[in-house]
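Hey all, quick one. A colleague (J.T.) asked me to put the 2-acetamido-2-deoxy-beta-D-glucopyranose job into the tracker so the inputs and the structure tokens live in one place instead of scattered across chat threads. No bug as far as I know, just bookkeeping. Sequence used:
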Amino acid sequence: MLSCKIQCFTILNIVIIVMARNNSKNYTFPKDFIFGAATSAYQIEGAWNVDGKGQSIWDTFTHTHPDRISDGSNGDDAAKSYFKYKEDVRALKEMGMQFYRFSISWSRIMPQGLPNNINQKGIDYYNRLIDEVINNGLKPVVTMFHWDLPQYLQDLGGFASDVIIIYFEAYAEVLFENFGDRVHMWTTINEPYNHAFGYEVMTLAPGLNTTGVGIYLAAHNMIKAHARVYHLYDKHYRAKQKGKISLNLSVQWSVPEHKNSTDDKEATKAELEFTLGWYAHPIYSKEGDYPQIMKDRIRNLSLAEGFPTSRLPSFTSEEIVYVKGTADYFALNQYGSYLIAKGDTGANPSYFRDKGTLIEPDNWPKSETSTWESVTPKGIRNIIKWIKEQYGEELEILITENGFADNGELNDIIRINYLATYMIEVLKAIHFDKCKVIGYTVWSLIDNLEWSNGYSSKFGLYHVDFNDPDRKRTPKQSAHFMRNVTETRQIPYNYGIIDRELDEEEGL
Ligand SMILES: *[C@@H]1O[C@H](CO)[C@@H](O)[C@H](O)[C@H]1NC(C)=O
Ligand SMILES: *[C@@H]1O[C@H](CO)[C@@H](O)[C@H](O)[C@H]1NC(C)=O
Ligand SMILES: *[C@@H]1O[C@H](CO)[C@@H](O)[C@H](O)[C@H]1NC(C)=O
Ligand SMILES: *[C@@H]1O[C@H](CO)[C@@H](O)[C@H](O)[C@H]1NC(C)=O
Ligand SMILES: *[C@@H]1O[C@H](CO)[C@@H](O)[C@H](O)[C@H]1NC(C)=O
Ligand SMILES: *[C@@H]1O[C@H](CO)[C@@H](O)[C@H](O)[C@H]1NC(C)=O
Ligand SMILES: *[C@@H]1O[C@H](CO)[C@@H](O)[C@H](O)[C@H]1NC(C)=O
């Protein structure tokens, strides 16, 4: 949140003063490139205890710890999309989008998360939503798990326990059986990295203080649960349902603080392996398993701390093979960048100490209402290139989240600039770097509950009036902008775009 006001004001000035160069402006998005917008169940649905829905860990967390949500709010009502989903779908259609990415609330269709108790009203709701999406000419892209674990399963240990794997598979089976005839793009888990953080920090559910231990167990079981669902689909559903499966991985691009420092350059590599590689290497690399640097560092530190073995669980050789290749494309969530130096920080033990990296203060423009978002468009092109270099040229990449948080202004020129400059970098990745980027998803379709930032951090292309019992939706300027993008398949010429030279000066 450093000197945000000044930074954002600077962006505005640049918008007015500097017109973009032509470079990639006239490059178009390929014919089969798809655009969409995303939401997640807990962040928009509301109806937290309606029609037989069970309690999720985010219900528990926000009810017992309003102090950990910046405005003390919760998702009890949220944007009331459970009742107003038709308007959400209409918004996507108005913007000319091709798909709607939403998530299913596990506890809405299985109140305890168990397969012996299925809530038909929950199934009915998602059937109505999926049909509405399809009847409007859009494709549903469905996330199975976007952090709102049924509380019952958390009581059994949540993702820190491998008990979760069989129940996740049983849940996925219910989804394939009920929705797989119409859903052809699945995401098993959204941002396992961030969900695992609920076992490291207090600000995300379940909010457990098990630093350096719980986080790796949760990650390990999420990767195994994902692989299990991929194989289930392969075995029983793929032939007739013909869909694709992935998991969404998020990453901040990382830049060495001192360009000439070997330490900082190595720390930067470690940072990327400890964030993206942690999940991507077991699934997308040729050799599988966790990145070597994670295995080495965590083992060394664990032994020194008095643990008999590494705190990072290990895969058996069968598991390495079982997990490898269990994604049909790379689903990338990307927002900002970090400036990285070598150094020790965090509790002992902790994930942060294991990384051996420091996130240093930078002077990139920041979102005024998000604690972690910087405006660094080149990062998205760099990370796309990094993925291609690490995991192969043939891998298709779908940008599954990108977007900007502000205070909810309707004339959201900063968001338009953010989206435009990032999409220009995506165009460069496609046309200059020959990367296979197949689509782009804006986070988010509508303003919503932004986890621990509550309702104060607004990402929506559509404004939601949270003081209105009817939660009126209104398109922002960025919604019109996206309409123009999907129509022309270019970044419209009539927008002043932040000059990319700026990034160069700032060290990106
Ligand atoms: C943009 O491209 C046009 C046509 O090639 C050229 O005339 C114009 O000078 C360029 N503008 C900038 C800012 O580079
Ligand atoms: C790019 O597109 C704009 C608007 O359509 C047009 O005026 C300009 O000449 C184009 N530039 C190039 C280099 O094609
Ligand atoms: C987490 O636990 C450690 C000791 O295990 C303690 O020192 C630390 O203060 C706790 N952190 C929080 C945020 O409760
Ligand atoms: C970094 O190294 C390059 C090449 O070795 C050198 O030209 C440059 O001056 C160095 N920059 C800094 C800031 O030390
Ligand atoms: C781990 O410890 C071994 C043995 O002491 C050492 O050779 C190696 O460099 C260490 N690796 C890391 C990444 O710390
Ligand atoms: C997850 O990936 C899907 C594609 O599988 C994408 O459309 C969606 O936006 C992603 N979800 C999130 C929360 O990023
Ligand atoms: C979208 O394009 C139309 C026609 O090209 C233009 O008149 C309009 O200003 C654009 N929308 C916005 C929000 O700029």
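Adding what we noticed when we looked at it: The domain at 27-246+313-332+365-506 is CATH 3.20.20.80 (TIM Barrel). Residues 36, 38, 40, 101, 141, 143, 146, 185, 187, 190, 246, 248, 331, 333, 398, 400-401, 441 surround 2-acetamido-2-deoxy-beta-D-glucopyranose (ligand 6) (CB under 6 Å).
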